[in-house]
């Protein structure tokens, strides 16, 4: 295949559409999808953007078929199509951008690619809880499909020792979640606030604020698309909101 | 002051408008601002949302006047106005959400508040560099106005030892930036990619990809609104893009 020849007119957008509510999409994400004639998405996300894809070729694939989605997106773009490869949240954060750029690099493909950022689950979930992310934070995936669990646990430990607010994605592996939370709890106070957000900005959303002592009561609420936010040493709960202060009240009179 | 009486009809949106380009705003951010009759913003951001604020009362304030912005926003909302308190990026991430919720809490104020998330600089800058955030990352502010520098340096060290991709915000204090980068370099290879993004998605944007050995050559490019992204042990540069692979190529055939 001669990529140079096939490139003309082809373009690949790797698009993040935020947490799944049309109102939390960016204009750029909407425009990129509208400009595309081919849309590639994980089945659930294809459903969430149906309002934008009428009359377009929509290629869906199931979970764990990331490489298929990458290949078909690149192929379609090389054929001269304008393609949107769609992730929820931000397309980099455990989405399709990294894999696709890596694939293009390793195959030596020449293609016009644009990453369209989105509101990732950390920021979306945090907005539903109050303002837990008002100081330095860590975004950590608990999926051990591609990353060894020892590495994930080491990261959890360093994040805890650094007193970062910790945002956990993909907590599908319960034993790994339990182990991670144990490491955090060993180094943080029992009453450290923990926020659990399920389906932020979507139907049947559920937001829970608990703490490191009691969070396990809600373990059955936690699934693949739940985001968990563990506060740092300063985080507190007030009026049902989880707040990480940045230190203004130490320095200034309110 | 009887807050209960004054509350009627009043509402406070704490809104993130993303990196400053109207195309990277969410629909929810646009709608919140449009619904408001009072807008409170740092002077520069008020300029960036001028297209949305015609005919509204716009209250601007300079940097370091965060407490003034908080107070006036809350007061205006308590008087019955619909108010948007606007931050760039996401309103939690070194924006106005944390301080405002803390203020409302400490003063015992009863007010309808909604946080409207946005695309924060980490995700916006990363999109311009390729896909550096495709594995676990840390967001760390280098502003020591409110947080002791020892705490910032400790966080930088733990983030480095955890092999997180590290996103540095507010690198205005040059000695602190140099010290932070020194800590990172002591624990990472010299050729670890470093991305420097100035004014992502705005006029006169500048994107630089360098590495831990050479980044200091660009130190004079770095100002308050620059975002710096340091790769982890896996991050590489290919076709001018900074990519953090998530490990697919170890597990699957491309």
TrEMBL record, chains A, B:
Top-rank taxon, per record: Archaea
Location of the Tetrapyrrole methylase domain: 11-214
Entry keyword set: Cobalamin biosynthesis, Methyltransferase, S-adenosyl-L-methionine, Transferase
NCBIfam families, per the entry: cobJ_cbiH, PRK05765.1
Pfam families: TP_methylase
Any GO BP: cobalamin biosynthetic process
Pathway membership: Cofactor biosynthesis; adenosylcobalamin biosynthesis
Gene3D superfamilies reported in the protein's UniProt record: Cobalt-precorrin-4 Transmethylase, Domain 1 (3.40.1010.10), Methyltransferase, Cobalt-precorrin-4 Transmethylase, Domain 2 (3.30.950.10)
Lineage: Archaea, Thermoproteota, Thermoprotei, Sulfolobales, Sulfolobaceae
Protein name: Precorrin-3B C(17)-methyltransferase
SUPFAM superfamilies: Tetrapyrrole methylase
One function term, GO molecular function aspect: methyltransferase activity
